[in-house]
Amino acid sequence: MADAAELTRTVDGATIPHPGVYTLDKAHSSVGFVVRHMMVSKVRGLFNDFEGTITVAEDPAQSGVEATVQIATVDTRDEQRDGHLKSADFFEVEKFPTMTFTSTKVVPDGGDDWKVQGDLTIHGVTRPVVLDVEFNGASGDPYGGKRIGFSATTEIDREDFGMTFNMALETGGVVVSKNVKIEIEAEAVLQV
After folding, report:
1. Which residue ranges in the chain fall short of pLDDT 70?
2. What is the pTM of this model?
């Protein structure tokens, strides 16, 4: 089994994976979100079906990410809420079944942190976003595979993507916040 030192390199003081194409391991990755509910709590949800590719280039700035999420697999641990999220009030999954992200630029952000700029498409609307990405390390697995891990977050305004449904509360505020935090834990396996 390869150790981390064999799987990483140092470029301009940052530890990064060796070049190659890595695919997400869905069993060890997650794509989730956090949204404020009723102005008093935060509700978390996950998407249970997604795929993605991380291409690490010799020059890290030339690296890239592509990911597709199947929106119908949204899971907030409440069947009624999940059904509402799939409806025309929010994701409208029958018309817009996927959410996609395609990176456009990778910029070092100090240490093992990176800014990954890209185009996020939700509900048929594409907007630029910046993912704050942390490289968590690399490891060999018991089967001879080479794995890398990243954590990534960003925050979006769902109304920018045409999802404007809401209800006012008698006490002020709204049922669902406009701001949505996206949280990604990615473990990927070297393919090439």
Report:
1. 1-5, 37-40, 165-175, 192
2. 0.91
CA triplet 40, 46, 50: central angle to 5 degrees?
A: 155
Spatial neighbors of 182 by CB under 8 A, at least 6 apart, are: 31, 32, 33, 152, 153, 154, 155, 156
Percent of the chain surpassing pLDDT 70 = 89
Q: Is 176 helix (H, G, I), strand (E, B) or coil?
A: strand
For residue 57, CA distances in Å to 4, 6, 16, 155 come to: 18, 17, 10, 27
Considering the four listed CATH numbers 2.40.128.110, 3.90.79.10, 3.40.1260.10, 1.10.10.10, the one that applies to the domain covering 4-190 is 2.40.128.110
Which tokens belong to 39?
Answer: 């102005």
Q: Sign of torsion, CA 167 173 176 182?
A: positive
Whether 132 and 153 have beta carbons less than 8 Å apart is answered as yes
Q: What pLDDT is stored for residue 8 in this prediction?
A: 87
For the chain, give every domain's residue range. Answer: 4-190
